[in-house]
Write a structure and sequence with these properties.
- The protein is an alpha/beta fold and 406 residues long.
- The protein folds into two domains: 197 residues, Aldehyde Dehydrogenase, Chain A, domain 1 (3-Layer(aba) Sandwich); 183 residues, Aldehyde Dehydrogenase, Chain A, domain 2.
- The strands form four sheets. A seven-stranded mixed β-sheet has the order 10-11-12-9-8-13-14.
Length: 406
């Protein structure tokens, strides 16, 4: 299959790198030299003043540290003794999240694969900083130059023939995108033995125990954590809570709401640069929801940096009216099982402030949704298990050998 390489904008790697990839040997998961390479990238990011200004870059840098990779290695290889990378992994990153592509690449790389990564179409400073760190390690550290054959970062337009080419030479295709994007990319055929991992449109929520919140000493820190979960990605990440559910006595819930939203407003007012179009979009979203969902009430705030929409009853329809840049639906829970109607395959993460075990009855009831339950402030923390997929298994292959004892 021929490809016009002039339509590709290479950020790391080249045409020659791409053409060589199918012939490269696969590596073993968590090889010392691969973890050392990622650790060097981590060091550069954590020592760079500008990079440290972005919490998502810092979180990524901590995740790829050698200590963390060693921990993951020990947990995985104790159960899976003989595994190898699959070969070439083709990653299609979401257009509206800055750092997601880097996690996908790091997972593919440390698990023994060569990686072709389509970068976010939207330009982010965080992406530039991570790319710079990777490029510098490849260029300046002789011990790591060989890994340049295993890494391609690029951008290109929405052209099927380009997706066709990269799909035809990959052993695993990873699609981070909405349902529509997945459908389009799946028009490009994969080789018969190639695998595919898709991360579709998802929805996340938050549960706050009012009593636990009111007893929290550092409410400013919690507001910052919730800000990072939501506003830092313009509430576009699948992990960003859009529905806030309150548990506890009604009087205490009302007290908690007043403080919670005031602390968040102060954080947003100080840190979040609003554009005029965001104000308009949020007003439009709340009007559409009010017209479509019976019994909702828009709660008046100082301005629309935060838009709160109170639900009278739980309905799956709220997943259709997502909004971004700070649009939050609210619901007062009498029992956690009231969330069952929205716990379909779209529901990814539940962020909790309080006892996480309160969610267990919902999970054990057999709902098809909920892949993660984490504390507020931790929704963006990446793991090899994501959306119910174990990337360590999906990006490697297991070699059966009868003489090996498990």
């Amino acid at each position: 299959m021929e490809l016009n390489f002039n339509e590709l904008q290479f950020h790391i790697g080249s045409r020659k790198t791409v053409e060589k990839m199918p012939e490269l040997p696969a590596g073993r998961p968590f090889e010392e030299e691969r973890t050392a390479f990622l650790n060097e990238v981590s060091k550069r990011l954590l020592s760079d003043k500008e990079s440290k200004a972005y919490s998502d870059v810092v979180t990524f840098a901590f995740w790829i540290r050698k200590a963390n990779m060693e921990k993951e290695k020990n947990a995985f290889l104790s159960e899976h003794r003989l595994r190898m990378g699959r070969g070439v992994v083709f990653h299609i990153a979401p257009s509206n999240v800055a750092v997601n592509y880097a996690y996908s690449f790091a997972a593919g790389f440390v698990l023994g694969n060569a990686n072709i990564v389509r970068l976010p179409s939207r330009e982010f400073r965080q992406t530039e900083l991570i790319n710079r760190a990777v490029s510098e390690v490849l260029r300046q550290e002789e011990a790591y130059r060989k890994w340049g054959d295993y890494i391609v970062f690029l951008r290109y337009g929405r052209k099927k023939e380009i997706n066709d080419y990269f799909s035809s030479i990959c052993n695993v295709r990873v699609i981070w995108g909405g349902d529509k994007a997945i459908g389009e990319i799946r028009k490009s055929e994969l080789p018969p033995r190639a695998g595919e991992i898709t991360f579709a449109d998802r929805y996340s929520i938050c549960i706050v125990d009012a009593e636990e919140y009111l007893n929290t000493k550092d409410k400013e820190r919690l507001a910052q954590d919730f800000y990072n979960d939501t506003y830092f990605t313009d509430q576009n990440a699948c992990t960003s809570p859009r529905l806030v559910c309150w548990m506890g006595e009604h009087k205490r819930i009302e007290e908690a709401k007043e403080v919670f939203w005031e602390k968040l407003w102060e954080t947003v007012e100080r840190k979040y640069p609003f554009q005029p179009v965001q104000y308009v979009d949020k007003l439009t979203n709340s009007c559409l929801a009010a017209a479509a969902i019976e019994g909702i009430q828009v709660i008046r705030m100082k301005d629309n940096r935060i838009v709160r929409i109170e639900l009278e009853k739980m309905t799956p329809r709220i997943q259709e009216y997502r909004g971004d840049s700070g649009v939050f639906y609210e619901y007062e829970l009498g029992d956690v099982m009231e969330l069952a109607p929205i716990c379909n395959e779209k529901l990814q993460t539940i962020a909790v402030w309080g006892d996480e075990k309160k969610v267990l009855p919902l999970i054990e009831s057999g709902v098809k949704g909920i892949d993660r339950v984490v504390k507020i402030g931790k929704t963006m923390e990446f793991g090899f298990v994501w959306d119910g997929y174990d990337l360590r298994e999906r990006m490697t292959r297991k070699i059966g050998m009868q003489s090996l004892k498990r």
